[in-house]
Amino acid sequence: MALVVQKYGGTSVGTTDKIRNVAKRVARTYDEGNDVVVIVSAMAGETNKLVALSQEMCEFPSEREYDVLVSTGEQVTIALLSMCLQSMGYKAKSYLGHQIPVKTDNASARARIKEIGDENIREDLKNGSIVVVAGFQGIDDEGNITTLGRGGSDTSAVAVAAGLKADVCEIYTDVDGVYTTDPRIVSNASKIEKISYEEMLEMASLGAKVLQIRSVEFAKKYNVVIHVRSSFNDNPGTLVMKEDAEMETVLVSGVTCNKDEAKISVLRIPDHPGIAADIFSPLTEANITVDMIIQNVSHEGFTDLTFTVPKGDLKKALKLVEETAGNIGASGVTSDDKVAKVSIIGVGMRSHCGVASKMFAALSAEGVNIQMISTSEIKVSCVIEDKYTELAVRVLHDVFELGSQGE
Amino acid sequence: MALVVQKYGGTSVGTTDKIRNVAKRVARTYDEGNDVVVIVSAMAGETNKLVALSQEMCEFPSEREYDVLVSTGEQVTIALLSMCLQSMGYKAKSYLGHQIPVKTDNASARARIKEIGDENIREDLKNGSIVVVAGFQGIDDEGNITTLGRGGSDTSAVAVAAGLKADVCEIYTDVDGVYTTDPRIVSNASKIEKISYEEMLEMASLGAKVLQIRSVEFAKKYNVVIHVRSSFNDNPGTLVMKEDAEMETVLVSGVTCNKDEAKISVLRIPDHPGIAADIFSPLTEANITVDMIIQNVSHEGFTDLTFTVPKGDLKKALKLVEETAGNIGASGVTSDDKVAKVSIIGVGMRSHCGVASKMFAALSAEGVNIQMISTSEIKVSCVIEDKYTELAVRVLHDVFELGSQGE
């Protein structure tokens, strides 16, 4: 007998019929002799409806009241799912964030979980009840309702699994698991059987949208095994877990791409200490996230600095950088929003040389020019012209032999 | 400076535009130098939508989960109203039942308030905040969400007013106040300026649907002055308050009617102790409310017993009564669902004779036969044939001079 935490997203509980299907799956897991805790999101579309209502009310709703409003979405789902399980003859009980309690900091609309109570839930499980928990929501020290940001139900599920020391945290979604790359780009992309937390974090932050990043960080911290799988079939999905020896034998686990960044270059900057701070401080103050940063060795006392920002922030960033460039005596600023970032990720590259060279050679052989490079222990990213994105992903997927067999 | 509690029902907060109007009225009360606590219902139609969703899910939803579901309606409204007040430049903070807390018993879907916390709200009022409270909901000792039954927001408002010792509890609705009778029946029905709790209780339970009965009981117990008024104009409404000398000078305050009852007679019962218990116990067990009961003096050892039940329960009641009638040796059972109850109410009749006779004479003069009579200290009710209902109400309204002047 295991303790299983299951999380179902908005599309899996989008209608009363779909909730009925979820109830059947939950019941089956219970009938197999497991203790079951279910975390659910709001019915698909509900959160958007509530957000629209708040915007109809006023332009800049306070975050505290926004949380009071949007947290009703999950509240509706837990009640309906519990009712359904009860009508099928099971004991079931719903829990709101404050009833568990899920204690968070007081950062409304993007709160972080600090602590999870397990006493109430354990008591119910002991009594043979299926426990149904509202995802996405918590409560701060003053008793205010908080929410965890979009995708926060993933984090709720992992946190509850950690708090209860569950055997597995199953995250049900509309895809079969985590793939070696986007199957819309590479038709023979294959499902990854298991992947380390570190790789999953790189995958998530580099553009794969299966899990909320914070949920993976949480799982890593508390060593929770996540099983990402489809709510529409019984196929095994992808296990996200602690790195093991087997994983290291794989050079590259996945290829990702991201077209949401733009490139800015500041040219011929007089090279002296503090110029980087001069350029980036105004961006930080304006809440613009800088991703890759490249500064070459200085040449006759001058250097060039290149970095990427989210495409949506390019205009605002350019204005700030042009101001700074004038002040620090740079010769000019150029920008380019026709770029993309392709990356290869794998814990195996830590113990194997030549992975980066193999990537560069493969891109070069297809005539793809590399504009920027950045590396970490387990990934290599290259910025290229955006029209080559799909080509680059396919080439890298091939050269590192990630395709599924028999296709 | 006064402490004012205001309650707005579903039609007053039915759209974001209407919520904006409520916010303006709340703000005006605040600007006049008052501390303001606002209790709101769910947006009109929302509770019905949620109930429909639960029925789509299963036939007999558990009451605990039903409360989790329907309480989201008020949660949406408090968030929107608070946002609106904030966007107008006011400090505002929303409160859910469990945040106040509104402690209730554990009777899901029809909970009774046991205790109201006032510390948190007082703190906010001291800081210059307008406090916005979700009506209809509370929390039991185990932390389960409870609801107070349909119309429960009235009771929430009175309970909060009692807990805070507010100067007045204003209940905003879509009518101007409490009328001497139903204006749809009598065109010159007049608004009552003030009415005692006792009279209001009789009015409410006899068919006037302005306030939830329980809210009036609560107000009476804690001596809360209720001001029933319209949210669409600034007219003074009706004060519901402790009886004063002035009220006693009025013989009759109002006339009500109720067409929702049916009459059952058990004929020629051998008269010995215990027959009433034999007849009514099965009805109590079946949860059927018996209203008027008439038993005449016995005649040659036999008596007749007549009583009324809600029309919807007539069939079920008849079946039970016919069984009993056979057992106790009565000669037969008759029933009539073409009846109505008209009543006159007034604390003045305690100290004046002849009020009942005047009523009987007035009905008789119009050829209306009286089938049953029941009286209390402050009311007289007559059961008549239902086709005479409107005529009877008009006649009584006239004879006790309740019509407004100049009409």
From TrEMBL, chains A, B:
Keyword annotations of the record = Amino-acid biosynthesis, ATP-binding, Kinase, Lysine biosynthesis, Nucleotide-binding, Transferase
Q: In which pathway does it act?
A: Amino-acid biosynthesis; L-lysine biosynthesis via DAP pathway; (S)-tetrahydrodipicolinate from L-aspartate: step 1/4; Amino-acid biosynthesis; L-threonine biosynthesis; L-threonine from L-aspartate: step 1/5; Amino-acid biosynthesis; L-methionine biosynthesis via de novo pathway; L-homoserine from L-aspartate: step 1/3
Catalytic reaction equation(s):
L-aspartate + ATP = 4-phospho-L-aspartate + ADP
- Name of the protein this chain belongs to: Aspartokinase
Which amino acids does the record list as binding substrate? 47, 74
Protein's organism: Desulfuromonas acetoxidans (strain DSM 684 / 11070)
GO cellular component assignments:
cytosol
What positions does the entry give for ATP binding?
7-10, 173-174, 179, 184, 209-210
- Please give the family membership noted in the entry: Belongs to the aspartokinase family.
